[in-house]
Write a structure and sequence with these properties.
- The chain has ten helices and eight strands.
- With about 210 residues, the chain is α/β, with parallel strands linked by helices.
- The chain is globular and about 45 Å long.
- A hairpin with a 5-residue loop joins strand 5 and strand 6.
- The strands form two sheets. A five-stranded parallel beta sheet has the order 2-3-1-4-8, sandwiched between helices. A three-stranded antiparallel beta sheet has the order 6-5-7.
- The chain has a domain of about 100 residues: Rossmann fold (3-Layer(aba) Sandwich), CATH 3.40.50.300.
- Bound molecules: BIS(adenosine)-5'-pentaphosphate.
- The site of BIS(adenosine)-5'-pentaphosphate has 35 residues, from helix 1, helix 2, helix 3, helix 6 and strand 6.
């Protein structure tokens, strides 16, 4: 099964991806996490994208597509994938269709007014990459899942969130029509609780 998680920044893609990979045998491929790993490891790719990510803009398509292409060649992708954060624009969607087209695209719909609160209160685990919100975990510093260090992402500030939302509306929203025309788009209500959103996704994936 080849699945894409589509949705605005902070819509819950990463949160749902953790639930999905627990239930289904799919590798979670988050382009944001792949870029952040490259930055942390100070690779040439990381050095090229760091400043761009800090502003909330999209990294160059050629670098992003090449990175995903390489990742999809790995053995764990033989029976499918769960893509989170890719594709992000029509060009990337067209490239993915040439490499390995998805079966289903789950679009997590949220009220954009709530996004800033979700993102500015997010804590991300430096180890397992899972995301949490201070509304639920308070001021704890260790990941509830693996005990790793909880950190605040560099792009999780109010100013960058506004830029990321603008980029989403201009470049990523047209993907809804693209995949709808292919008959692959299924929207779920992302304003429900994490468990309720997951239940809707399970109905789609079976
Ligand atoms: P990326 O890492 O992909 O970030 P994003 O798309 O902005 O998405 P987020 O990770 O912010 O949100 P999410 O939807 O995963 O939400 P989460 O589950 O954490 O991209 C970062 C950057 O990398 C980009 O800006 C770009 O520069 C670059 N990049 C990445 N991919 C690229 C590409 N393809 N092309 C070019 N550049 C690319 O949830 C958010 C918060 O809400 C958490 O605190 C969570 O606990 C909480 N929450 C989740 N679900 C619920 C719920 N149902 N109710 C209440 N709270 C909830």
């Amino acid at each position: 099964m080849k699945v894409i998680l589509l949705g605005a920044p902070g819509s819950g893609k990463g949160t749902q991806a953790a639930y999905i990979t627990d239930k289904y045998d799919l590798p979670h491929i988050s382009t944001g996490d792949l870029f952040r790993d490259n930055i942390k490891n100070q690779t040439p790719l990381g050095q090229k994208v760091k400043a761009i990510m800090d502003t909330g803009n999209l990294c160059p398509d050629d670098l992003t597509v090449a990175m995903v292409k390489e990742r999809l060649k790995e053995k764990d992708c033989e029976n499918g994938y769960l893509l989170d954060g890719f594709p992000r624009n029509l060009f990337q969607a067209g490239e993915l269709d040439k490499i390995d087209a998805p079966d289903v695209v789950i679009n997590i719909e949220v009220d954009l007014e709530k996004i800033e609160h979700r993102i500015t209160g997010r804590r991300s685990c430096a180890n397992c990459k899972n995301s949490f919100h201070v509304d639920f975990i308070g001021d704890r510093e260790a990941c509830p899942d693996c005990g790793g260090k909880l950190v605040i992402r560099k792009d999780d500030n109010a100013e960058t969130v506004r830029e990321r939302l603008a980029v989403y509306q201009a470049q990523t929203l047209p993907l809804e029509e693209y995949y709808s025309k292919q008959g692959k788009l299924v929207s779920v209500d992302g304003d429900k609780s994490i468990e309720e959103v997951f239940a809707q996704i399970v109905k789609v994936l079976g």
